[in-house]
Write a structure and sequence with these properties.
Elements lengths: L2 H22 L4 H15 L1 H10 L4 H26 L3 H23 L6 H17 L1 H5 L10 H20 L5 H21 L2 H35 L2 H7 L2 H13 L6 H17 L1
Amino acid sequence: MSIFIITIVLISTFIHALWNFLIKKSNYPYEYIQLLAIFSGLIAVPFSIYFIFVEDLTYTGIILSFLSGFIHIFYFYFLGKAYQTGQLSYVYPISRGTSVALVPIIGTLLLNDQIGIYSIFGILIVFFGIFFLSVNDLLAINKKNIKNVLIPLLIGITITIYTIVDSIAVTLINPIIMFSISSFFGGIFSIILFDRRINHFGVIIKKNILFILVISSMSAIGYPMILYAYKYSLVSLVAPLREVSTVYAAILGIFFLNETYSKTKILGISLIVIGAILIT
């Protein structure tokens, strides 16, 4: 993996962790997730128009972009619900751990990604690092709260599917165009199909438009960087490397949300960093 790809992935993961952090501490986490998707897609539209005129489009690329948007409908809905119901202690280890485990397997089998032995060890170490970040919460799962695992697991499955779809789509269509279609489509239909409180979202937009534009701009910058990394590198390596965002999230939580840090959390952060180094 080139230094350039590593750099844009690490920058993107920080941006991703930052907007997640801002939404996490907000009063309307569910609503902001949906609105971020819509507005980030809209922000990308002018750039998409430019690339439509300077680059070739393929029907397959457009179809895959809408397919990604369809998958994102469920991703944005489930993620918003997880934030709304306070299941964050389960979301990261289960959802991100699921995608870390599945994406390299599918990438190797479906996309013929060739992964070196050091990268394989790195992926495994990142997986265990994510587990140790929230090991106490995971060990507390019992029959009474087992249902709390369902939404994070569904999030992990949607992440896995859209990651594979996105990595194929960006080889057939410009990543900015693909992002604009996928994000807007996913966000708007998540509201229309699942929520339907159009007036409620309108009020939130009017009262918090500046905040919405800030987090949406972060998303519009951050995820296209990952899409370019998918285009010029292996998704089986880029996707696990993205989980450095969990390190940023843990650090932000410790310093700004007064979240406790334990030996297992420090171990988890250390393992993710070591795994990321091996992946690269």
